[in-house]
Amino acid sequence: MVDILPLCPPSASEPQAPLRLALYEPDIPQNAGTLMRLCACLGLPLDLIEPAGFDASDRNLRRAGLDYLHALRLERHLSFRHFEQWRRAHGHRLVLATTRADVAHHHFRFSPGDILLLGRESAGVPDHVHEAADARLAIPLRPGLRSLNVAVAGGILVAEAMRQLDLFPPMATTGGLDVPSP
Length: 182
Fold this sequence. Notes:
The chain is an alpha/beta fold. The protein has five helices and eight strands; from the N terminus they run ββαβαβαβββαβα. Strands 1-4-3-2-7-5-8-6 form an eight-stranded parallel beta sheet. The chain is globular and about 40 Å long. The model is unreliable at 1-13 (pLDDT under 50).
């Protein structure tokens, strides 16, 4: 059973997650699916801010997330306005990934309860979303190169935030990557 919530906020009795990832009106279902899998594997809730640029029905989200959705806590928000009301009511800091930032992601100090927001693949986020963000971060790139794929950028930001907050799950005895001893 997939834990895809309806377009409404979670109950007040739910414990606050130490870190969340949010997708602002994603355009490409494959990228959304990759980020769903990332969140499922790392135990992070994912907030989907609609409308999406693809059919975001439960059936299509299940297809995009493949066989990992059973482990995902996915919360859907009808619009950015609804997401913002929910976020502010729960005291989450909004950290926006953007090519228009002056702060490098690895120089930023993440805090428990942060929501990492990724914009649309085609257009990023509009100015009112930039203005609502509590922090704006960029991943430093070589000169002359524009941006990373949104799923790759999300993975880099999530990894740095989880490293700083010591949120990685313990290593399993099987699976994952095996690194030979020197």
